Every structure is written in structure tokens, then in C-alpha cells.
Amino acid sequence: MNGFVSGWRTALRIASREARRAKGRSALVVAMIMLPVLALSFAAASYDMFDLRPEEEANRELGSADALVEWAYSGRVEQSPTGDAYGSEGEPRTTPISGTELLGALPAGSRIVQSQEGIVEFRTATGVGNLNSYGMDVADPLAAGYIELLEGRAPSGDAEVAITKNAGKRLDAGIGDTIQNADRSRSWKVTGFVEIPSGLHQNVVFPSGKMPTRAGEWSVNRWLWDAPTPVTWTQVKQLNERGMVIKSRAVILDPPPPSEIAISYGEGDANAEAFAVGGLIAGLGVLEVVLLAGPAFAVGARRRQRDLALVAANGGTPAHLRRIVLADGVVLGTVGAVAGLVIGVLAAFAGRPLIEEYVIHARAGGYRIFPLALAAIAGIAVLTGLLAALVPAFTAARADVVAALTGRRGVLRSRKRWLVLGIALTAIGTAAATFGAWRVSSNVILLGLIVGELGLVLCTPSLVGLIARLGRVLPLAPRIALRDTARNRAASAPAIAAVMAAVAGSVALGVVLTADEERNHLGYRPTLVTGNALVQYYPMNPTDPAQKAPDFDRVTAIVKDSLPASEVVPIGRVTCPGAKPEESCGASPRIPEERACPWIDAPGPLSRDEQRAARKDPRCDVATYTWTSGGYGLAVGGPEVVSALTGATGDDLARAKSTLANGGVLVDEAKYLVDGNVTLEIYDPSTDGTITRDRQQKLRTVTVPGYAMTTGTPLAGTIISPAAIAKVGFGHATYGVVVATSRMPSQAERDGLAAGLRDLDPGLQSMVETGPPASSDDPTLLILAAAAGLITLGAASIATGLAAADGRADLSTLAAVGASPGVRRRLSLSQSGVIAGLGSVLGVLAGLGASAAVLYAFNQASADMWPGEQPYPIGVPWDSLAVVLVVPLLAMLGAGLLTRSRLPIERRRMT
């Protein structure tokens, strides 16, 4: 045992001396190991800072209060321990609860402070806009942690507010300035700047109970509760009986056991997608550390081949040689791990404000480093550094001592058994990943991906040898680069594999995120053509018969002054002759009985077998899980509205216009059409109430010409012609305009439109179709691409530097035979291109295969669910992929520019 320890102590001392003596090469090796450790430690520290602890989450939601109370229902409530999910069979309360009434239901000694949230329209710097608004006494101790005062003082009374700095930019207001609501009926003085740590958005804070609301406007009325004692789960359940939903600090910090929770609402369920993606990242990250360290130690061992041969010549055993090379892995791996951890954590700390402001849009919980994860990363880095040095260690132990002392290397050929093993592992990994995707097992998928990528690594030397044959037809510099790449496969193959791992991880995750984004887009039903606008009139008091609609000629003028409008077309709604103002009439297309999905009106939830049957039934192929920014329901219009509403083109547009001109109706699906006609079900005041299947069959109907459009934006409702409405017996009146624009209106133009409409009539509402949330502002994909690009560039540069250091003797030979100085620059450029180019191509292929397996697993998980979810499309992140593919060119350019042209002259050492 003492001999073993002494042997390792000697090996470590030799490795440390060698590291200090060869500072340049050691720095390159350390940098190679440090790159993934830096990235992983940055991610770990950032995650820990933004992963709020239960106490921090409670402070964000409750301030310093003991609980948050919302008296939401008139009957018994069942809620989750956190209060984020709840349900009741009672009726929702439609009027706010007074503080006196609430205190009467709480224990004696309680104190409450009203907390409001909602949306309020303000005059902005460019017009009118909606801002998130809160009603809270900023100066009250219970608000500490929920809202923080940054500058100035807390607002008080009816005429003061505090704002966030982001809101100040949009409102063009600061401390001491005055802001107004949309109709200028009220104004408030800004007394201070505040911050809401849970959301760094455009927020306005009113004193408690002073936030303006109006009928029909969304708002939340809750109360912070300072209880005499901590609010227990038993108290929460007692208050649930009266219809209250409680967020209790004590329960959040000490949740009840599952046996005491009637309904969990899925809060404890793991997110399968996050787990799978997280496992994929972690597994590929570990593999990347191994692959990045491998070429460094291989080149280091090759550089020290003569020194190791001297040890062998003086009686050193193969075990001694292996230990010396392995000690290199331990020493340099430790230095690289420590340097990567320190720089990664410092980068996470320095980048925290930018991540808070531009990525998370919320404050971090604190400066933390996730010590357990960092220790694991450091341990893995050192261990994998040791493992990466195994192959060079065994290679050095088997080296020919005479050949090493004389400086001969010979030509290395890839053994066929390694190629066969690589192909077998690639096939096994592909099969395992496919099976894991089919069985929806993230662990099997990860195992398959790692095995498959290791198979590609084993195939890389043979692939390098195959490509090296192309050197016969290439100029001098690339021919030498390919020859050296093939001769030094112990160094070049791991370097190529390292680049492949970096690119594969980035491409795989990029494809998954792109697919998620496209899935979100596919589930979105736009109201209009993107960039077009819809102005609609909603009477402020629908029951007042004297209330008149505004002059739509003036509405049109405001629209043309505010937006880049190319066409403004009036649109109407159905009127009900002889009905009261609050009563309505309408018509709805009827689905023929034989085309109706039999499961639509099934009572209660469907069983798994029923869901499978519905999923296979083509009549039930409905996109149930969709979302939209709005709609127009049943719109009355002539042929002129079609283009502005849908953007249809060609023969489809002509047929749609012809249908409306002939007294027909436009529907969104062809299933409503029978022989070119649509049957309309008629609704009027006499049909109020629940429409059962039997009542639906007895409704009055009218048959009119119909058409389902096939181009442009799908209809967000039904367009019915004035003639069809007259045939039904109803009337129609203009209630809005559709605006076709020449480009997407800016936020300033939209605010200006809202201001002009508000000044004309408060009942005028506008919306601009912007599509689903734009992903162009989300930096995730570009960050991934940049990270992969930097790792690829670093791996290629460092590997090229090591190859150049290893090839100094060849450069000396070139100088001796009269090669020009530019040959060295072109040689370095070619070596970098071979490593980065081949690694990037293999990485793209591996990443696309890995992402396909993950996405297929996601789709399989919901394959038998009905109503169905949008499947994940397999897309390609062209932006990030373009960055990755440009990296080899950058690596070549950098190598060509930074390499000195002067060829070295080395003196051979005498043995």
C-alpha cells in the first residue's frame, strides 16, 4: 500500500513539474477541460440563484404576511396546499368582499390589507395602453418583499401612484410627474419608483383599495392577512368550507402529507419534458467533458513520448508509464476544474442582473453557487480527465522504446475491430433511443444517445483515414493537414469527437425548442391576417336604448391617421328586431348528423379505450387545444370584407366573394357544406337557456349557399352576407371596421389608435393581430448556438494549437527543404478546418437524430389522448444551425491570422 501511494506521489510530482515546464501546452490542456466545466458551473449557479426557496416564494406572494386570502366562492372549496389550484361546486363571487365582512370570518386579533391586481388603461407617451396595475399600501410592513420602494415615497390617497422604471419609460413619467387614465377623467401624481421582484414589467401601484376598476374589466381582489398565529393546514381547510382560498406561509414552508390532500392537482407530478431534456443535457454534458479532455492528454502523451521512453529505458515498467500519464490527467484536470468553477461562478454572478432584466424578468432569490452541483461537476471533470487519459496512458505504455528515442512515429492504422465495435454501438444506441422514444422512457433515450455517440467516436478514426485519402488531389497544406490528422488519430479523433459532442448537444436542444415554439404557433388561431387590425364597438351600457354607436366615418379617419392602413372596411353584427337591448339573435352553421363526432357530448370524462376510439375517428379530428387573441363570432359583411379579414388569394378569394354576393355564408370547415349549401340554426330570445341535443334539433333553420375557404388566415368565426341575414328575418348594423395594413403597426402607432378611439367613444376597442408571442425576442436559441459555437471554436483552436505544437518537427523539416513561411499559416488553417468541419458535420447529424428521438417520445406520450394535443413538429433551428456551421470557417480564419508565418528551426536532442 505504501508503495502504491509513494508511486502515485512520485507520478503527481512529475506531472506537476511537467505542467510548469511546458506552460503553453499545459495552458491549452487546462483550457480544453475548463470550457465545459465553465459552462456547467455557470448554468448550475444561475439555476440555483433563480430557483426560489419556499421562504422566498412566500415573500414574493405574501410579502411579510402570514397568508393571502381570496373569498372566491359561495360554497366549499378544495385547494392545493400552495393555493395555486382550487375548485368549487359553489357559485363564484362577483362582488368584492369588504374588509369588515372578511375580518368577521377570521380569528380575533387578525389584521388585513387589501391587495388588488388588474389592468388599467393609461395615456402613454404615444397614445393609450394597458399596464399591469396593483392596489397595495407600499409603506405597510406586510408589503415588504411583495413590493419594494426604490426611490421617492409611497403613494397615498386617491391622486397618487408609484410606478416601475419600465412603466416610466412607456408613460414618459418620473417622480413628480402626472399620469392620466385613458379618457383623461382622472390623473395621478407619481410619488416614487417601485419594483415588484416577481415581475419586472411595466407596473403601476395604487394605494390599497384605490385601483380604478370598471364593469367587465378583469381584476383580482385579495387580502394580505396578518394572523395572530401561523395559519395551519387545519385552519386552511376550515376556511375552505366557507369558500375562501388561502395561501398560507406556514403551509408553504411545511406542506401537509399527501394523505391529507384530497386533490393534488398534479403539483407533485414531474414534468416529463423537462426531465427528458434535463437528462439529455446532463448526459451529453458529461460525455462532452470526456471528449474534450481526450485529445488534450493524447497530444500531451505524444509530446512526452521521448521522456516516457527514457523512463522505460531506465527500468520503468508499463505500470509506471501509465501512472505518469494518468497523473497528468489528475493534475491538469484538477486545475481545469477549479479554474472553470471559479470563472463560471463569477460569470453567473456578473451576468445575474442581465438575466434578471432580459431573460427571466424577475429577481433572483440571492447569490448562491449550488455547492452540491459544483462539487459533482468538479468531481466529474477530474474523474473524466483521468478516464480520458486512460487511452493515452495505455498507448504510451505499449510504445516502442527504440522508435520513440529515435523520433520515429510510423503510420497508425485504425483497427477493424474498433470500427466494427463503433458501428455496432451506433446501431445499438439508435435502436435503444428509438425503443425509448416508443416506450416514452427518457432514461432509455439518454442511454441510447450516449451509446450511439460513443459508437460515432469509435468510428471517427476510420472516417478520418477514409477522408485522408482525399489528400492526394489537394494542394500541399491541406494534404499535409489530412496526412497528419490520419497519422495522429489518437489526438485528432478525440478532438473531432469533442467538436461533435458540442454541436450535437446544441443542435438537439435547439431542435426541441424550435419544435416547441412551432407547436405553440400551430395551436394558435389568429383572428386576422398578421398586422391587420379590428376595431369593434361595445356599448358601455348595453341596456340603455338611447346609447348610440359612434360615427364610423370618424372611426375610419382615426384609423387612417394612426395606422399604416391600406384598406378600411366596415363590418356589421346581427340585430334583433323588436328585442330588448340586452337580448341577442344569431345564426350558427349546423354540422350534418353523419359528420358529427359522437364523443363531443359524451357525459363525464372518457375512458382510455374511448379516447383511443375517438382519436381514430376522422369525424373527431378537431383541434380542441387551441388559443387565440380574440375573434369576431358571427360577422355581417359583403364581398369587400373577405380580403381584409382573411388575406385569401386567387380563385379561393373569387369564390368567397361570389358566395357572399349571392347571399351566402363563409364557414371555417368544409364539414358544414352539403352540396354547396350550409344549414344555419337560428337563435333568438325564445331560445335562451341550455341548448341540449334535442332542443338543437328543433331549432328553426335556413339553408343558404356556403363556402369553406382554403387560403389565407382561417376564419375566426362565420361571415354571413346581409342577404342571408335578411332571409333569416334579422337585421344588421355596423359595429366596427377591419383594417388591412401595409406592415406591422408599431407599439406607438397602436397606442395612438387606442387614444384616438378612446377620445371618440370609450366603447371602441381595437386589436392588432400580432400572432403568437414572438420568439425572436427569446434569446434561448441564439444563446445555445453561441455557446456551441464558442465551445466548438475553442475545441478546434486548442486542438489545432496542440497539433501545431506536436508538429514542430515537421515544420522544421519543411523549413529545411525550402518551404515558404506562408506554408505554416496555410497548414494551421487546414488543420483547424479538418477538425472543426468534420466535427460540426457529424455533430449536426447526431443532434438531429437525438432530437428526433426525444420529439417522437413526446408525441407518443399523448398519442392516445382525446381531445388531442398538437404534436411536436420536427423542425430545424436554422438560425442556430447557421451559426454552428459558420464556426469552422471562423476557426480556420482565426488559425490563419493568429499563426506566425516564420517556420521554426529545432535542434534535435542527442540520445
From TrEMBL:
One Pfam entry name: FtsX
Topology with respect to the bilayer: Multi-pass membrane protein
Spans through the membrane: 27-47, 274-299, 330-349, 369-397, 418-438, 444-470, 491-513, 781-805, 834-858, 878-899
Localization (cell): Cell membrane
Keyword Transport among UniProt keywords: no
Domain ABC3 transporter permease C-terminal: 282-399, 785-902
InterPro entries: ABC3_permease_C, Macrolide_Exporter_MacB
Family to which this protein belongs: Belongs to the ABC-4 integral membrane protein family.
Domain of life: Bacteria
Name listed for the protein in its UniProt record: ABC3 transporter permease C-terminal domain-containing protein
Keyword set, alphabetical order: Cell membrane, Membrane, Transmembrane, Transmembrane helix
Organism of origin: Phytohabitans aurantiacus
